[in-house]
Amino acid sequence: MINKESTPGDRLREELTRVFGGLTDAAVAIKVQSGSYFRPYLKNTNGIGMKLQKKLAGVGLDVDYIMNGVRGEDAKELSDFDDVMMRKYEDLRYRSDQLNKDIVEFGELLIKRNKKKK
């Protein structure tokens, strides 16, 4: 099931309520001072970073669902697809970097050539 209509903050609230029943118990579980810790994440003021994702996963929350709106088998399919996309991205980035280096080198050669003509 994919839920792209809600925000990560909405899904975080849903998961915290599903697993802990409320923010106070969730705060105790992940060892933060109070339920207000979650406020900027629930309002989507702050993004949910890797440290918080690890804490949430450590207490049994479905982080794939919170971050992507994807549960169960859909998460595995998305993960496999993400791996393919990441490999393609890295390949394109490497090629782009190489092309940029070649362009800079070409520009330097043009500058040297123009200096010799003067």
**Derived structural class:** mainly alpha
| Fourth CATH level, the homologous superfamily of the largest domain | lambda repressor-like DNA-binding domains
Number of domains: 2
Shape: elongated
The percent range for helix content is: over 70%
Number of helices: 6
Helix and strand sequence: HHHHHH
Mean pLDDT over the residues: 86
Based on the model shown, name its key terms.
118 residues, mainly alpha, 434 Repressor (Amino-terminal Domain), 2 domains, 72% helix, elongated
Outline the structure in words:
- This protein is mainly α and 118 residues long.
- Helix 1 (8-20) crosses helix 2 (23-29).
- It has helices at residues 8-20, 23-29, 39-42, 50-58, 63-68, 72-117.
- The longest helix is centred in the C-terminal third of the chain and has 46 residues, at 72-117.
- The protein folds into two domains: 1-70, Orthogonal Bundle (434 Repressor (Amino-terminal Domain)); 73-118.
